[in-house]
Amino acid sequence: MMATTNITGRGTHTQTFDESLCSPVWLGEFKQQSISLSAVNILLSITATLGNSLILVALHKESSLHPPSKLLYRCLATTDLLVGLVTQPTYAAYWMSVVHKHWSLCRFSFYATGVTGYVLCTVSMLTLTTISVDRLLAMLLGLRYKEIVTLRRTYIILAIFWIVSLLSGLFFHLNYRITFWLSVTGAPLCLAISIASYTKIFRAISHHQAQIQDYAQQQPSQPNALIMARYRKAVYSALWVQLALVVCYVPNITVEIVISLSLKGLSNFVVIRGMANVLVFFNSTLNPFLYCWKISEVRQAVKQTIRRAICYA
């Protein structure tokens, strides 16, 4: 849900497009699509809420994960939960208000979706970038990792992320130019940091495997082998979540850029933009499945939680 604009003079162009989304100018022909998008958002809201609630309960019970790493995943699950509880219902309300031509509700729900979506997506992106750096530090620092990467410092970093994201959200509909620069510099920077971190990590893993092959006649120590296996598993888990975010976010960013640069035919982008936004929100439903698939400790905790809930029911 990142707003983009052309700083060479088309800032009002994108703003006009956004304002026209709550008027009968273009939307009369999209009634059926609006109903479908509203229904999809309601469904994804339910799945995101249930899935991330289970993940938060599982992470609370899980004790084998390093506390700072677990806190980062809890923050990510919290943003996904809030997407399901707040952003997706308001987006569904937006599309239904279009169908019933309640333009005051339309404008309110559109702005609420934009602000909350921008804030939560920004926190998610910053948190995932931090997870990649956390995995890199675990490799570089070795035994000093737990001494330097502490729970207190992780809380401070996440608090800064939330403050910065909330302040950025205030400019979402107040100043397109500020939002544009935050988006156009922040998103690529986060992606570049993550790519650099994982590239260095996989080079180190490949080097380690090559050393093992060179000394194949010598039996490697069992503790080191287990530590490396767990570390590699944690890296792949984080990487899958990172890739899912990129796949879900790229279409939305692309559509926003095209809208900011287009001068005509913008009515064609109304439904396309809605579908791109739904894909962004789908990331909040997808993440819990990735956690359960790639993190065995979380998967076991989720299974236990579901069993207990069924027994109590």
**What fraction strand?**
under 5%
Oligomer: single chain
Largest sheet: none
What gyration radius follows from the Cα positions, in whole Å? Answer: 22 Å
The string of secondary-structure elements, in order, is HHHHHHHHHHH
**Helicity level, as a percent range?**
over 70%
- Please tell me what the overall shape is: globular
Structural class: mainly alpha
Provide mean pLDDT, rounded.
Answer: 82
Termini separation: 38 Å
Number of helices: 11
What does this structure look like?
The chain has helices spanning 11-20, 24-27, 31-61, 67-100, 103-141, 145-148, 151-170, 176-214, 222-261, 269-294, 296-312. With 313 residues, it is mainly α. Helix 3 packs antiparallel against helix 4 (67-100), helix 4 (67-100) packs parallel to helix 7 and helix 10 (269-294) crosses helix 11. The longest helix is centred in the C-terminal third of the chain and has 40 residues, at 222-261. The radius of gyration is 22 Å and the shape is globular.
List strands and helices in order, with pairings.
Blueprint: H1 11-20, H2 24-27, H3 31-61, H4 67-100, H5 103-141, H6 145-148, H7 151-170, H8 176-214, H9 222-261, H10 269-294, H11 296-312
